[in-house]
């Protein structure tokens, strides 16, 4: 499985509200295309871009941008986080 867990912090919540972007902790071996494909398959929303970075704890984090700005809120509410 490419995606491990959603990454929800205060900063991530602000990014969701302003830009409609979600953050996920992903596998170290996952590339941007695999992440985009996994998110699209899991949540049935079109992904426009993926940015990856390493956290200070050594985890790989992906910031996912959706075509529909409200998709992020809908996904988090389906997961029971928002």
TrEMBL record:
Keywords: Ribonucleoprotein, Ribosomal protein, RNA-binding, rRNA-binding. GO terms for molecular function: rRNA binding; structural constituent of ribosome. One of its GO terms (cellular component) is ribonucleoprotein complex. One of its GO terms (biological process) is translation. Gene3D superfamilies: 3.30.70.330. InterPro entries: Nucleotide-bd_a/b_plait_sf, Ribosomal_uL23, Ribosomal_uL23-like, Ribosomal_uL23/eL15/eS24_sf. It comes from the Archaea. Transmembrane segments: none annotated. It holds the Pfam family Ribosomal_L23. The keyword RNA-binding applies. Part of the 50S ribosomal subunit. Contacts protein L29. NCBIfam families: PRK14548.1, uL23_arch. Belongs to the universal ribosomal protein uL23 family. Binds to 23S rRNA. One of the proteins that surrounds the polypeptide exit tunnel on the outside of the ribosome. This is Large ribosomal subunit protein uL23. It comes from Methanogenium marinum.
